[in-house]
Structure formats: C-alpha cells, structure tokens
Specification:
- It is a single chain.
- This protein is α/β, with parallel strands linked by helices.
- The chain has one domain: 2-Layer Sandwich (Transcription Regulator spoIIAA), CATH 3.30.750.
- The chain is built from 3 helices and 5 strands.
- It has a 5-stranded mixed β-sheet, covered by helices on one side.
- β1 and β2 form a beta hairpin.
- The longest helix has 14 residues.
- The protein is globular and about 35 Å long.
C-alpha cells in the first residue's frame, strides 16, 4: 500500500439475541463498553422487549473496566420499562466486584429486582440461567 491508511471499523462491544424457546433476551458485553454504543444497545433491547414478563440476562463476564457514563441511560431505561420486566439476571466474572456494586446501586435506584450471578467463562452457557 503506497502510504494509504486503511481504517478498520471497531467491533461492537455488545451483542444481543433472543432465545426462541424461552423468549429470554440475552445481552453480552465484551471489552470496554463505549459510551457511543449505549443508545444502540438500549434501542436493540427495547425492540426485543415483549409487552410483559420480559426475562433479561446481562452477561458481563467479558467486560473490561467500568464506564460510569452507561449507568444513567440504563437506569432510565429500567425505570421506563419496570412494569414489563419479569426478571433480570446479571452475570459477572468471579472477580467482578465493581460490576456487582454498580448493579446493586442501579437495582436500588430503580426498584427493579436484579439477581447477580458469579460465573466463569467455562460455566454452563448463561442461557440456562
């Protein structure tokens, strides 16, 4: 390449799927969560939400660090959708003390009951939670 610069597109720090058998919404985060992606994953989650009895899993086992700028948008989304949620499970790495604290703070602030589960990468897939 004669000096031309090739820009590589960043991979998203999150992925979302809906488990067909149970309807569980599964969000997986990898690496640092970029502030610019917060609206995208909240919009994707909103699009997958059923009218009621939503089951949601946030898998944070591969997340790196904590981005405090994601807390308020997630908290606002939880408050707005509280009535539609049956349960939320947050899976954190065994050493994920900061993720546990942030999850507990968000649960207290919104009044949404959130179950926190320690999980190693080799655990049974989170879809069985």
């Amino acid at each position: 390449m004669d000096g031309a610069m090739v820009l590589e597109r960043e991979r998203p720090s999150w992925g979302i799927t809906k488990v067909a058998a149970s309807g569980t919404i599964y969000l997986r985060f990898v690496g640092p969560t970029r502030t610019s992606e917060t609206a995208d994953f909240i919009n994707a989650l909103s699009e997958m939400m059923p009218a009621d009895e939503a089951k949601i899993i946030f898998d944070l086992r591969q997340i790196v660090g904590h981005n405090p700028e994601t807390k308020e948008p997630i908290k606002a989304w939880l408050l707005a959708n509280k009535a539609r949620i049956a349960n939320i499970t947050v899976i954190v790495p065994k050493s994920g003390a900061i993720q546990k604290m942030v999850t507990a703070v968000i649960a207290l602030a919104t009044g949404v009951r959130i179950r926190i589960r320690d999980g190693a990468a080799e655990d049974v897939p989170a879809l069985h939670v």
